[in-house]
């Protein structure tokens, strides 16, 4: 069958179904955007090819013959199947996966414990969680729909990027460790404890030296008796949980541990900066990311210390 023949057959099926359903050449012509004579001619040609009378012409409208009714039913069924198939194809081409880029600490200590709530509300959406060591804000990565990264407040030109959490850093330890220390009456008293620190602190993260200086007790004056260094923050956090000493804790990464009582604040006053966690959406995928963005903002706002807009 040639392309022209295929086109003729498909057009004839469409016209046959419409005429049979509307019961009038004029009504079918109006629906299909054709003229009444063109519809009449198309049906006449089809009847000639088949050697059958498909419609009986009445004073007003038409009615299908027995053969016409059989073909109309088959045509209507075929078109319905094609519409169903096209709908399925279109649905299969719709992106249903959402890629979120963040750092490991935010993913492990804040996002993952809450993610089941989002998945229960959006069961058809598949999440892909990417982690990075980057500490910078700005537009979402090309490979991600949404980025939640730590860094400085972006310029106004950075686009749709806004702050979820401001940087707040507290000295934290386990309840058992705090109970075994002498009473802490000033920030400077913390130097008597075992200070847990990163061996190679990532750029833009506060160090113990920063903390004591901003708290008004320069570390060089106090002098630390001992310390324990770690290569990454997850290991340091585990050491804190196991009562090995005092470390620095970033909100919101420590919120769940504080709420559960696994860790406590060794000193209640934090140090702060203009840095924090900022959320940005890939402009090309903003429609897909809107549900996740709204959910993250609501989760952030539920925190008593949230700075989410």
TrEMBL record:
<dbReference type="InterPro" id="IPR000847">
    <property type="entry name" value="LysR_HTH_N"/>
</dbReference>
<dbReference type="InterPro" id="IPR005119">
    <property type="entry name" value="LysR_subst-bd"/>
</dbReference>
<dbReference type="Pfam" id="PF00126">
    <property type="entry name" value="HTH_1"/>
</dbReference>
<dbReference type="InterPro" id="IPR058163">
    <property type="entry name" value="LysR-type_TF_proteobact-type"/>
</dbReference>
<keyword id="KW-0804">Transcription</keyword>
<dbReference type="InterPro" id="IPR036390">
    <property type="entry name" value="WH_DNA-bd_sf"/>
</dbReference>
<dbReference type="InterPro" id="IPR036388">
    <property type="entry name" value="WH-like_DNA-bd_sf"/>
</dbReference>
<feature type="domain" description="HTH lysR-type">
    <location>
        <begin position="8"/>
        <end position="65"/>
    </location>
</feature>
<protein>
    <submittedName>
        <fullName>LysR family transcriptional regulator</fullName>
    </submittedName>
</protein>
<dbReference type="Pfam" id="PF03466">
    <property type="entry name" value="LysR_substrate"/>
</dbReference>
<comment type="similarity">
    <text>Belongs to the LysR transcriptional regulatory family.</text>
</comment>
<keyword id="KW-0805">Transcription regulation</keyword>
<keyword id="KW-0238">DNA-binding</keyword>
